[in-house]
Amino acid sequence: MLYATHQLLGERGLAVYYVGIDLGGTNIVAGVLDEDYRMIGRAAIKTAMPRPAKEIIADMARAIVQATENAGVFLDNVDSIGIGTPGSVDRETGTVMYAGNLNFSNVRIVDEMRAILHKERIFLENDANAAAAGEYYAGHGRGKRSFMQITLGTGIGGGVISDGRMLIGFNGAGGELGHTVIVENGEQCTCGRKGCFEAYASATALIRQTKAAMMSDPASKMWEIAGGLDRVDGRTPFDAAGSGDPTAREVVKQYLRYVACGITNMINIFQPEVLCIGGGICNQGDNLLLPIKQMVSLENFARNCNRQTDIKISSLGNDAGIIGAALLCKLA
Amino acid sequence: MLYATHQLLGERGLAVYYVGIDLGGTNIVAGVLDEDYRMIGRAAIKTAMPRPAKEIIADMARAIVQATENAGVFLDNVDSIGIGTPGSVDRETGTVMYAGNLNFSNVRIVDEMRAILHKERIFLENDANAAAAGEYYAGHGRGKRSFMQITLGTGIGGGVISDGRMLIGFNGAGGELGHTVIVENGEQCTCGRKGCFEAYASATALIRQTKAAMMSDPASKMWEIAGGLDRVDGRTPFDAAGSGDPTAREVVKQYLRYVACGITNMINIFQPEVLCIGGGICNQGDNLLLPIKQMVSLENFARNCNRQTDIKISSLGNDAGIIGAALLCKLA
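ok -> structure tokens follow
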């Protein structure tokens, strides 16, 4: 009889699986992890904005079913489902309070998913925190007691986890590492403050800095490499610096100073065992990592300690969000 | 027989007491707390620098014995002893790694105290963290889940505690809130970085800013109020601003901007239930607190949340360090 039940559950029966969803403005991606946190199946559906929240949630459920089918896993064997969303969340009620690029306002996403999928254990988290959870449980944070992730993207997202607990603050709004001022009264930030880490060290900030430098130097190779001001991206100054352009070198040098400044701030506060840097800029590899490590090692308060924070580039890349969402159930 | 034992233990016998020491460059102060964390006895001995660590430690033990006598408590009834020290500590080995103003370097202070007092439970902590623990257990943090203290003194000390756990980082060097840059490439800080919160918002920084403003305005009332450049202290600009001096008002306004900038940074990261401001500057009361609350309420990331961090002035004043040292045993 036991054998028969096992057959019924399929080849992967009796084991436990975790499902994560990375809900983005462009794609809804669902992934299934096995007990070793390896991704064994996935599915993606276009978010296709603008459309009502109800339709998006229905497609999230569809993506989950497809991903489990692709993984050869029954939904009954899924321990829990985690959702990583942009914007601000209320974890207790499973509500997306506000997410601008999804046009979500007070969407009770967890209850609606429960109603469709008949699964009780559904967790909700901000996407930056979900990515940090992914790296903590399945990447460079594995087995470490304290960990933080800083993602240099359109904005700067962050997540701090120690002993399996995510830093969210008493009102759930904590962990906004990007919205710490590093240049008092500096560049306007989207959050309303002036001079935030995000306004100097995000990919968006790098693009702004690159364009300003190009405007001041019509002879810079960056013009040719980018193919015009509107086509500048985060790679432009790095590529031009690599080919010896002095203006680009200066842009990259100052940008890395800003990144190192914010990272040193975070290390002086948290002294995590591992700090991971994520985001598209990480494609620069050692061109990014080595100068930052060098600056941090000269400046951080614990520079004479035996034990120093290990700074690494995120190992999970774009999958961090899905993997982390799937593992939200592990957080204390 | 039980009665006789009780007599032997003295009037306060059978109860549990906590002893804390605030070890400073000028005074060694010991205090005894009862079970309600009230100070029921204290004693002070001059640190009388320079002299060897051994002598200072012997006087710390003497101060403890005197304080218990003043409290009418037997040392046997003391649950534990806590030591708050300047500088950096290794909590596990009970060692003061380095404390410049005590001329301590790798002093195994806990072992030496154990040998003199024959008490096993002796805890060691950095003085800023000890002060935070005091306010957390016996002041405005009582009963709160998450708490932080920022002390604006000669430097800026900080302590972050949530769920009874102090933020110290994996190497014990964390929680250096004062050594986070708020003005990239700004004023030189004692830590080696440029532009730290401490270099702009400590009492030392305020005095520097005040002197610079006086030099640029020979007609400022600050000259008369201070009685000379060498006699400027943290009260000078506040007193002069109160009497209508425009230059002093500008100094105070900009100083409060720096303080609010650093505090908003910390709130955006931690969103603690309560944030306490300590240090001598707190004597300014609402002249300090109200403008800071105003600026934080306009700028912090959670300004639209239902629940906001409550910003308060430390309730324990100079006793925070002794009380907190006594309660180090409570930390998880």
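Confidence is low (pLDDT under 50) at residues 1-8 of chain A.
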